[in-house]
UniProtKB/TrEMBL annotation:
It comes from the Bacteria. Gene3D superfamilies: 3.30.230.10, GHMP kinase, C-terminal domain. The keyword Magnesium applies. This is Galactokinase. Keywords: ATP-binding, Carbohydrate metabolism, Cytoplasm, Galactose metabolism, Kinase, Magnesium, Metal-binding, Nucleotide-binding, Transferase. Belongs to the GHMP kinase family. GalK subfamily.
Length: 385
């Protein structure tokens, strides 16, 4: 669906035209995984699959929400009931209501509003449909309320919605990517300084394609493993006497490893430190126009996530291994792990072959058939009309 169809759905649902249509994209992270809560570096790009949100001012005293992907599940919540933990905000509408609540927490008064969501981003595939919904909502409701807001502010408000309203302790990467990415670019986001820089990333110009393999294995960040990784990182930082693991460089790594008491903490540290280094190396290659050379860094990132950070799974590993054997230049899991998606950097003329190889490998293993998508770097959250 696009701008016109979400407007039509709004008109059919609420009997008038929306005051605006807004959109925000999903994202994949090219490299820099599990670094965003360690003050580290990430390198995501927004993808050409978006959540569209039609919005209209109302004077009902309530927020009314519909989603094209949840037919029949209309949600109407009085403004006074838009707070974390309220029974009125359970389920998927919480992503939109949380964004509105988080906006209110910045001291900006919010009026009632009618919303229709329509998203092309598959939910739970590791492509960050949740951040797109949150960013689109922050942008829509702030614009309708007359607040103009820069992308990083939108991202911070959206992240707070996910952390403190939905209750998922994610880092800042997803919302920042959805809000601040530029078309044809990856976003170098330094989560320690908060600085962002768009760096040209144009696979098509090099006859390359980024293929996303959605393993169809539901990742659930709320199920505890993500929280355990964060806790391990905090513990390692405490033992090493640093505020965040970002402060440990590859040069410091041997000495830092020798100070940690057990193998698990040592492996967690090694992943975070080497991953930050791989992001820097990737950026150097991209700046030099050497996109075809980044493959080994992607693949090394996957090995580190699999062996040191223990966040991969059989399906992710099979997708990576098969893609590489079939001719991908590099491949890695993207997102939190335990399922979700793999990205592979593939010579465009081999894309069908790589995709078919992964599908057949999954069948051979008895896994659910994966869903394949080609993605290209797209624009962050924007007003459509
Ligand atoms: P991801 O962000 O990786 O897609 P999450 O579990 O963080 O996965 O977020 C997915 C959740 O976001 C869904 O379960 C649903 O609650 C909400 N969501 C995403 N897209 C839509 C949509 N189009 N309509 C309603 N809810 C949605
Ligand atoms: Mg999410």
């Amino acid at each position: 669906m696009n701008t016109t169809t979400v407007s039509d759905l709004f008109r059919r649902s609420y009997g008038r035209k929306p005051d605006g249509v807004f959109s925000a994209p999903g994202r994949v992270n090219l490299i820099g995984e599990h670094t965003d809560y360690n003050g580290g570096l990430v390198l995501p790009f927004a993808i050409d699959a978006r959540a569209h949100l039609a919005a209209g001012r109302a004077d009902s005293g309530a927020i009314r929400i519909m989603s094209a992907q949840k037919p029949g599940e209309f949600s109407q919540v009085h403004l006074d009931d838009v707070r974390p933990g309220s029974p009125a905000v359970a389920g998927w509408p919480g992503y939109l209501l949380g964004a509105i609540w988080s906006l209110q927490q910045t001291g900006r008064p919010i009026e009632s509003v009618d919303l229709v969501l329509d998203s092309q981003i598959p939910a739970g595939a590791g492509l960050s449909s949740s951040a797109a919904v949150e960013c689109a909502t922050v942008l829509a409701v702030s614009a309708l309320s007359g607040y103009s807001m820069d992308p990083l502010t939108i991202a911070r408000i959206a992240q707070r919605a996910e952390n403190d309203f939905v209750g998922v302790p994610c880092g800042p990467m997803d919302q920042t990517a959805s809000a601040a990415c530029a078309e044809g670019s990856v976003l170098l986001f330094d989560t320690r300084s908060g600085s962002t820089e768009n760096i040209s990333f144009d696979p098509a110009a090099h006859d390359l394609t980024v293929l996303v393999v959605d393993t169809q294995v539901a990742h659930s960040l709320a199920d505890g493993e993500y929280g355990k990784r964060r806790t391990s990182c905090e513990l390692a930082a405490e033992i090493l006497g640093v505020t965040q693991l970002r402060e440990v460089t590859v040069d410091d790594l041997p000495a830092a490893l020798s100070k940690l008491p057990d193998d698990e903490l040592r492996r967690r540290l090694r992943h975070v430190v080497t991953e930050n280094d791989r992001v820097e190396s990737t950026v150097e290659l991209l700046r030099a126009g050497r996109i075809t050379d980044i493959g080994p860094l992607l693949t090394a990132s996957h090995a580190s996530l699999r062996d040191d950070y223990d966040v991969s799974c059989a399906e992710l590993d099979a997708a990576v291994d098969t893609a590489l054997t079939a001719g991908a230049l590099g491949a890695r899991m993207t997102g939190g792990g335990f399922g979700g998606s793999v990205i592979a950097l593939v010579p465009t003329d081999l894309t069908d072959h790589v995709g078919a190889a992964v599908v057949s490998a999954f069948a051979g293993h008895g896994f659910r058939p994966p869903v394949l998508r080609r993605v290209s770097p797209a624009q962050g959250a924007r007003r459509e009309n």
